[in-house]
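User: For my dataset I need records formatted as: sequence, then structure tokens, nothing else. Please produce one.
Assistant:
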Amino acid sequence: MMTRKLLAFVVAAAVVGLIALVYWPAHSAGFVWDDKTCLHDAAWLRTGDSWKQYIWSGFCDWSNYFRPLIVALFVAEVRVFDVAPEPMHLISLALHLINTLLVGLLARMLCLQRGRTSNLLTAAAMLLYGLHPALIEPVVWISSQAELVVTLLTLLALLANTLLKHTAIRAFIVAACFLLAAGAKESAATLPLLLVLFDWMRLDTTSNTGRIAEIRQLWQRQWPVYLSVLAVGIAYLALRFGILGFLLQPTSGAPLFSLARWQTVGFVYLTYWRIIVWPMVDLGPTHEFDPGRFATFDAASAVIDLAAATIFLAGLFAAYKRKPVGYLIVAATVALLPVLHLVPVQFDPSLYHERYTMMATALVLALLPRVASTISLPAPTLRTSVIATATLGLLWLGIAVTNIRVTLPLWSDETKLWQWAAQENPASSRVKNNLLASYIKINDQVRAHALADVLLAQAHPCPECMLNVADLAIADGNLARVKTAMSKAEKAITPITPARHLQAFVLATGVMHEMEHDTDGAAEAYHDAIAMDPLDPTARISFALFLARQGKVTEARAAMDETLPLFPPDTREARREEFEQTLTAAMSAQTPLAPQKDR
């Protein structure tokens, strides 16, 4: 007869195998969105020692980004796998499967029942987490590995804090997990609160010693852990401040205390609960909102605010009364604190992202078996409730699996991703710009020109939008349109425009000068673009092609030899052919060739 431990192992293996099977198409996905700019095209990840600088700050031009563990992981993946996306996607899937196992282990430990009931509840928690559609994005999008890693380390810390009996070892492991989690993502700041919450939940509730005595008991047992975590937190903050020069850089103009901010918090909080419970709708990559919608108070706002406050306060009260459902609500709320817009920091134009619920979802499902195991009903009612719950659960899982398999292809291809996003956010300039860039990349001239016309007609275009319009016009040889787009791009540039966009502007200026037959101006602009980022292969090949078009064979070949290793391996042959064709054409022509924008 199969032992309980062996049965639990078999059930867990079956669940993980099913999740892996559902997500298996993700292994063949490509690079999308930030993957292309920050991983595929970033030469510093593949070449030299520049990664030692970017591991601390400046990754992908993000000012608040201090995630040395994740940048180190990206460096290792890119170099070991030679910029191949397939094994990087498999790492994301492996992290997700490990997290699913950790959710199951935590659920099993917290469940108040044992035996077959515990196995069933644990398997249900793992299935609901592993096949939760809100987690599609971090599993398929390589740049979201930070979410997977911080969740893994947080769950490990909670498990170590529960399982390890030796105080010194427990304190060391929990503090180490906290430090690594903080190095993976800033949302790890919630771990100390979660530790206290889980410790409070596991206190002996049979004694009548009173709250003060319970707190004293908890402190006597856990003070080494708390002080270790505090010391690590202070060390992390000191390191972050020493590297960045600030702890958190506010970028939103809204005041900390205002009607608009608290209306925003209430809406986002309620939205995240909707995503946790019913993630089957509105799963697009962006969720942009007009901030002005939260500046006024009306009946709909009142309902949202009241619902959000009710969930939060009910959770606090139930937790105070030691009800498992209260612990569940409070744990999820704590996990969501970094993404509720409580602090005026603008993450990006999207108001929320499904991936931000990953840690909250893990905690909800880890605590769900504990909630279920405390429900006491008469036998007939219990039987009916179990059947109804199982039916609803299977229906939920069926819809979830269908959702995952339909959504995976959209996250696997750049053009499909932004076509999907455009359907969800048709007015978004950022979405239109990314879609235009993808159309240019696949040489879809008809749709690219139609979208470029729309962007060019906007009253307040973004700099990157105009640079893509200029790129398309350069490929067409339309100098007048290039000048129009470049003029609008220059006016749209602000002090916070990312450095890579400024470099792209300088580079496009060089191409424009070359089209005007201003070779000195073109050469100067190309040199300036290279100086802004010496490891950027786009600027370097533009200069090499410029030299080739000028018929300067020796200089062009020397420049190209320096440039080619900076390109990802999968593009080098195409770049070499482009260079050779340009050089051959230039040698055959009587006059220098007109430039074509490098893509």
